[in-house]
Each structure stands twice: as C-alpha cells, then as structure tokens.
Amino acid sequence: MLKEIRSPGELMEMVSAFRISRIILSAFELGIFSILSDKSLTSSVIAESLKINARSADRFLNALVSIGLLNKAEGQFSNTGFSSIYLVKGEPAYMAGLSHQVHLWKSWSSLTDAVRAGTSVAVENSIGERGDEWLTAFIAAMHARAVPQSKEVADVMDFSRSTSILDIGGGSGAFTFEFIKRCKDARAVIFDLPAVVPITEKYILQADLTSSVKTLAGDYITDDLGSGYDLIFVSAVIHINSPDENAMLIHKCFRAMKPGGQLVILDHIMNEDRTKPFVGAIFALNMLVGTKHGDTYTENEVRYWMLDAGFKNISRKETVQGTSLMFGIR
Measured between alpha carbons, how far is 282 from 259 in angstroms, rounded to an integer? Predict the structure, then answer.
C-alpha cells in the first residue's frame, strides 16, 4: 500500500474507517447475524432476545443495513446472502476467526502507550495463559488464513525426502494436513503449547489424520523438539520472538534435523529499511501491542540466524499474501 497521502479528505477517509470495523465486530459479538438465521425480525424483538436497549438496537441494525450486511423490509431485518453464509454461527463457512479481531481491537487501542513504552502494555499473559476463549478464537483465525495459504506454500516446497515432519507452533495443523496430502507415507508432529494442543487434536480428528499426525506439547524456547526430522516447518512464529530467541530456536531446529533435512520458515520478511511489504510494516505494530518482544525481521536477519546455526543453500520465495518463505538445508 506504500503511498503518499495527498489530501485531508483522503486522510480522514482512512482515519474514519475504524467506525465500520467497530460496527461489524460489535454485531459479531452481540450475535446479531446468528439470531437472524433464516428469519426476519423487528428491532424490538431482536433487542428483547439479546437483552439490549431497544432504541440503540434499532439504530445499530439500520447501520448494518447501510453497510450492506443486513436487509430491511417493512420494519423487519434479515441477513443478506453474504451474512447468511459467513456470519451465522454453525454454518460451514462461518468466520469464527472474527473473534480474534475483537481481541486485536482491544490490544491495538493501546498503540500510543505501547509506542511510548517500547513493548505491549495491554497484554500481560503469554499466549498459553490467555484462556480457552481467546485461544480458540486465535486458532480459528489462524486456521481460516492457513487453509488456502497451505496449498500455495506446498506447491513450492520439495517433499521428495520428507518422511518425518515437525510443525513448530502448528496450531490447527492446517499446513501439516496439506503436507501430508503431498507425501502420504510421511508422519508428522505438531509442536505447540500445552494449552493449544487439545485444540490441535480436535482439528486432527476432524481431518481424519490421527494415524499420521501426532502432537507434542511444550515450549519451543525451553523444551526439547525431538530428533530425526527431515522437514521442519516454522510458520508465524519468529515474529513472536526476540532476535535472541529466534537464534536459539533455529539452532534447536538444526540439532533436531537429519543431515540433508530442510528448514522452512514462513513469515513477514522485511526489506532492509523495514518499510516493505506493507502488511509486514503494519504487522510489526501488531507485535508491538500484542507481545513483549515480537517484531517483523529482515531477510538478512533471518539469513544470519540460519547460517549461524549451520544451514546452507539458503533461499527465499514470496507468497501472494505478502509473506515470504525462507529455506535452508542442514
């Protein structure tokens, strides 16, 4: 998106965009779309069902009509076709990951103080200590993003020697599931925090991959990763860590891998002045408000950690989402 703002009106349009976002997230939190599943209701009936103020409910629902997420006819509100598919809880395409956006709203509201402090002031607990509701929403959001991306990533990876796969911080297992489809004789381990692993196991069961995908609970900074892997995949992990933690993690990956094995890192990889890609520059601030030490890192930084650990033949490939893949061979 990197561009020059050219007018006060253009700036105000960007500044005011938060209002639409907040309306949508509040509607999601209140369960507006789910209560309207397959029915039309007046604002007063909706207000009574949700135990919210009748006048504010009416104005709120009218705003959702203006945005294009509800229809209104003869004083009754109903879902649009889009809302029926994506915003009704229980539907196959339900965007459950929006719950995570609600949580991000709260942490991003502390950005000014985080910039002053140089670290998050809104988040006191680590990811594994934020409770089942937060974790479930977070994993659902990551899963929704990873499912389509996993196919693109798998298309550019070499699975010719992949029989034992380790997915560090694998969450729902979306990438691992796609990798297993590409190398059916392989076995995989998804390594994640003890609080995350029970959620991971539900996704494994849904994917019918319990015979080929297992879990390992632990902290990748302090715990052993195992050994004998010929592919280690590290997706959306290094941006959570400090530089020293990333160096330590990549050394551990080297030790856990067979000779000739492949390390693949998927993340936001920045240019050297850290202004591109746009999504990575913005995401660096997401890490500022949401973590104690996280950041986005440059190619040279990641390359240095890999070389220092002993990896060779290091290369990089871009993805259409604005992230990058970094490859290294043990």
Answer: 37
